[in-house]
Write a structure and sequence with these properties.
Macrophage Migration Inhibitory Factor; elongated; alpha+beta; 59 residues; two-stranded antiparallel ribbon; single chain; 4 strands
Length: 59
């Protein structure tokens, strides 16, 4: 049972998040051949105030 965790800045629409989770699961299914219903995709959203790039907060 593969488990994938994706961390990203919060704020994207529900439809985009669902599409991403589906695509990740399908990519794992295609590449390693495990049954799609055994793949877990965990999405962790982080507030922009808690995420920085190069020391600069995304907020």
């Amino acid at each position: 049972m593969p488990i994938v965790t994706v961390m990203m800045v919060e704020g994207r629409p529900d439809e985009s998040r669902r599409a991403m989770q589906k695509e990740v699961a399908e990519a794992i299914h295609r590449t390693i051949g495990v049954p799609i219903d055994t793949i877990r995709v965990i999405l962790q959203e982080v507030p922009p105030t808690n995420w920085s790039v190069g020391g600069i907060p995304k907020a």
